[in-house]
Amino acid sequence: MAKIHNLGFPRIGKHRELKRALEAYWNTDIEQQEFTKQITQVREQHYSAFDLLDYAQVGDFSLYDHVLDASFLFGNVPDRAKVDNTVENDVDAYFRIARGRAKQNDCCATHAGEMTKWFDTNYHYIVPEFSSSTTFMLNCESLISEIRTVRSRGFEVKPVVIGPLTYLYLGKAIDNSNKLELLEPLLKEYKLLLQTLAKQGVEWVQIDEPALVTELSDEWQFAYKYAFEYLNDSGVKLLLTTYFGDLAKNLKLACALPVAGVHIDAIRAPHEVEILAAKLNANQVLSVGIVDGRNIWRTDLNRALALLKPIAEIKGNNLWLAPACSLLHCPVDVTIEQNILAEIRPWLAFAEQKLEELEILKKALTNTPSNSVFEALQNNQNIIAARKASTLATNFSVQQALSQIQQSWLTRSDPYKVRINAQQALLNLPRFPTTTIGSFPQTAEIRKTRREFINGDITDVTYENALKAQIANCIQQQESLGLDVLVHGESERNDMVEYFAAFLNGALTTQFGWVQSYGSRCVKPPVIYGDISRASSMTIQWTQYAQSLTQKPVKGMLTGPVTILNWSFVRDDQARSLTTKQIALAVRDEVIELESIGTKIIQIDEAALREGLPLKKSEWQTYLNWAVDSFKLCSSSVASTTQIHTHMCYSQFNDILPDIQRMDADVITIETSRSNMKLLDAFTQFNYNNDIGPGVYDIHSQNIPTTEAIKALILTASEKVPAQQLWINPDCGLKTREWKEVIPALRNLVEAAKQLRVDH
Ligand code: GLN
Ligand code: ZN
């Protein structure tokens, strides 16, 4: 009989209990003892999801990040996190790397580990730091103790660890040394870990190697062979676990490794399941990731069974079923949602429901499934059929709008040089124009008012007036700071994607559908279930009000179609490119309306454009083509005098600059202050034409940049980009900062621009 297991479960808790416990502890609202108690309760939720499984995964729960856990497990901890007199316990040392620490009682500050996105997801991990002098030392007590706890509940455990090559792949060599030179010492600790687990009587270990779905050089391919030969015969069975894509050129390699089983993502690589089943030997387990871990749709169980049945014939007991990847990327439980349209709700499955689906599949694969299994399958079939037949997903006017798109809509009517002159004639901005990225502090007061509004405690009018007061204050502050291009401050937005989704036909937002983004931070991705169109104006009211308060230009602020797509759960019944095109048309409607009310500058943020790049480089261009086209579709139908801005967060640009240029935004603002303008080099080399606002204020830090520091950054920038192309702005939005930080920082920013104007 097939077995079922899970690769990882959301750890944030059904009601974000982990977030609450973490933040209370960090704010010193609770002591360590209480913190430990609360964490134990969150873990209990984790354990309750083991009931259906044949193997309980242990080691996927994390207080902050599972990659950081691996760094601690293998003793790769930067010196600055080592326990010292001022940090009295391991938990604090761990949080010190996760979050950094401000200067305290004469003790120096610690900078946090760098954060970056986990493959092509919106989850951020803490980047392991390597150098040629890195050493490793296994420290597995807490893993072993968790194994004991889970076993004592009567579960068969399957510890989960990140594989040695993926761990190296994810890290950064701070001295530019070759990370693979660390493989040998790292493997020694892995072997020790596996032997220790074997001594504990562990049978299976899930060893996560998602790097196998990327394109690997010969050197890395060879390293895989070497590593798994080395770990062979450690006394446990290894389940080589791959996800987020197909193995493609690494398939042969994966099959040749001496492991007891292989897991494959059958959602993204259905075409490889049969090949693997044929290639693996009879004793090897094939774990088929048959339930989507990256999306929230109910699985079509009959379709899944059609794929699984022939595999079950070949593999028999050696067929395992699992979600395609960890369920970390899904919300916990759909049954607690109260506001989802009754017709749509059955279409959705969150993490808990996905495990139930696995159980049905397992039972359906037995020789004599019970009646209740047939019923469950029938029920599932009804739901799938209802979704297919539903008129909610189809909107003929959207289909019609799509068919009416003209090629000319994708290009501005004049080239940048002509446009920028026309815009300047109208805007009359000084050299080095100053602006911000859009949001101003989301104060506790704003969040409280929004909560009251959502709970129905205050009326629409009260809420609207409260937001207007925020906008008026924001405009007044910017006026007195002397900024040149103003914003309304985005106080009405809980989130830059969720806010827009609420105005789109074909999309819904959830109440509790939280997904961990990093540490205690979560996002609530909207669900795009049907054809998208703009239901009503999205930003007009706020922009218009803000503009009525000032003579200076106020930017209209929108989130771009690619970012809305990448930060949503999207429909799985049509290409992502087509969904993006629909979103682009909706954004385009808003752009046109903003222009019609007299908005002279419109910013369309594409923070997640880069993040959507496929994991295999050979697939990049196809994505970039439709992504850039979608941006152009929403932004090009304005007069030459209307200035289009775009903004992108921590991005490397060197390898995608032709595409950035093709977007043809009049102004692009980017995050550069931490890199000391290094990111601008790519723009210089490419001879990038349009205006650029390289960030001169690191908004992720509480530090207030001095006028001198900002001037120095601008001067560095003007060595790389002609001064007349430069804008002066912070790195990103200011929503996470406080007014008392923002005011002096922006005052210095404006002052720096003023001083430099004298000489330029
Ligand atoms: N306009 C958004 C803001 O200022 C942009 C945020 C982002 O790019 N992440 O908050
Ligand atoms: Zn940003």
Automatic annotation (TrEMBL):
Cobalamin-independent methionine synthase MetE N-terminal domain span: 4-314
Biochemical pathway: Amino-acid biosynthesis; L-methionine biosynthesis via de novo pathway; L-methionine from L-homocysteine (MetE route): step 1/1
Recorded catalytic activity of this chain's protein: 5-methyltetrahydropteroyltri-L-glutamate + L-homocysteine = tetrahydropteroyltri-L-glutamate + L-methionine
Keywords assigned by UniProt, alphabetized: Amino-acid biosynthesis, Metal-binding, Methionine biosynthesis, Methyltransferase, Repeat, Transferase, Zinc
Domain of life, per lineage: Bacteria
Residues noted as binding L-homocysteine in the record, renumbered to the chain: I437, G438, S439, E490, D605
Domain Cobalamin-independent methionine synthase MetE C-terminal/archaeal: 432-754
Its biological purpose: Catalyzes the transfer of a methyl group from 5-methyltetrahydrofolate to homocysteine resulting in methionine formation.
Organism per entry: Brumicola pallidula DSM 14239 = ACAM 615
Gene3D superfamilies given in the database record: 3.20.20.210
Annotated protein name in UniProt: 5-methyltetrahydropteroyltriglutamate--homocysteine methyltransferase
Amino-acid positions noted as binding 5-methyltetrahydropteroyltri-L-glutamate in the UniProt annotation, renumbered to this chain: R16, E17, L18, K19, K117, N122, R521, C522, W567, E611
